[in-house]
Amino acid sequence: MAPRLGYPLRMSSTIFEPCQFGRLTLRNRIVMAPMTRRMAQPDGIVTEESLRYYARRAAGEVGLIISEGTALDDLHACDTLTVPRIQTAEQWAAWRQVVDAVHAEGSAFAPQLWHTGRLALDPIGPSAGPGPKRADGSSRPDTREMAEADFAQVLDAFRNAARGAVAISADALEIHGAHGYLLDSFVSTVTNRRTDRYGGSFENRMRFPLEVVRAVRVEVGPGFPIIYRFSQWKMDDYAEQKFKTPDDLRLFVTALRDAGVDILHVSTRDATDLEFESSGLPPRTLAGWSRHFSGLPTIAVGKVTVTLGMDESYGDRASEIVDPAPWLALIESGEADLLAIGRALIANPDWVPLVRAGRWRELQPYHKGLLAQLW
Ligand SMILES: Cc1cc2nc3c(=O)[nH]c(=O)nc-3n(C[C@H](O)[C@H](O)[C@H](O)COP(=O)(O)O)c2cc1C
User: What is the pLDDT confidence band of residue 7, given thresholds at 50, 70 and 90?
Assistant: First the structure.
């Protein structure tokens, strides 16, 4: 593949070296992307099998492991009850064992705090409307517009989950603000049609996500690393462009930074894709723009050593393996500080040692069959 940014395609000298972001010390710049596996017990407790799954990636020298989306409550936050939760002392105790196992292998761990919003079992969102269709075409229940009591309940659930992240000795936490789930649905003018202080202007649409960030910051205290994940796209609209101009993005990322976010996790289809190409400004990826505007470290993600789009993850076609050099070069070129790997890490717990040794051709291809079990 041609180098789209015009940066040299040599192996990054720093990507496999230890690095530090505030209190977060990592053995290298490779991150495991959050990936829902729906294999917890129905009471939301993460299993022994999941512990081994995460520990295997830590033994494979991943710098930071971000958990699958872990639901804030059993009321509105999850889309199935086999999504693990981070709500009760029993659920925290099981997560603590996962964190201990990951630490024992020398990696860091961050739970991803997830509220599925319009895609939940009992869906809530900024505005009422028909639920988005499931992948199999079936309908979800209608979304109920959030009332004052719902705002208070969700904030409390985020506060509680943040306390959980500290209690399990996580090294950081990630707020899931991407993909059309609750927080993202406030930012989008398509899903947020409110006329009160939570809708309308950009400032109003950002109000609730920022209230969540501030509430989480109060719970975890200064210095505990907060990662915020966001995206242009959403699950039910892969083509959505929430940030139409560089200025839209600038307002968004600086507001997150000022509310207490430490690291931005920029979820893109392909981390090397350029954004705002028609702006006449120098070429940058979405992670690069976010870093440029906010001054915060960014995590880039998307299609590293896989050829399938995220929307093709459950299709019949298997991925091919591609040279990771253009993606690794994102670190060297200053577009991103960390690189998250999703599906390639499902297929290859030993992704880091193989790629570091230049043996990427030996990687196993991702295919949907790998999702049937936790390995
Ligand atoms: C099976 C699967 C589950 C996913 N679950 C989540 C999730 O829980 N939270 C999230 O933010 N992203 C989730 N994603 C998106 C990934 O984190 C990642 O952004 C995406 O797979 C692109 O990275 P890749 O091309 O390296 O796989 C999921 C992706 C897959 C394939």
Answer: very low
Helix locations, the chain, DSSP H: 48-59, 89-104, 148-167, 182-187, 202-220, 246-259, 286-294, 325-332, 343-347, 351-356
Query: pLDDT tens, 23-56?
Result: 999 999 999 999 999 999 999 999 999 999 999 9
Compute the average pLDDT of residues 204-212. Answer: 98
Q: Is residue 8 part of a domain?
A: no
CATH number at residue 326: 3.20.20.70
Which residues' Cβ are closer than 6 Å to ligand 1?
33-36, 68-69, 112, 176, 178-179, 229, 267, 301-304, 306, 310, 313, 341-344, 371
Asked whether residue 78 is assigned to any structural domain, the reply reads yes
Distance CA 329, CA 257 (A): 25
Residue 1, in any domain of the structure:
no
Domain count, the chain: 1
- Could you tell me what percent of the chain has a pLDDT over 70? 97
The answer as to whether 91 is a domain residue is yes
Alpha-carbon gap, residue 351 to 360, rounded angstroms: 8
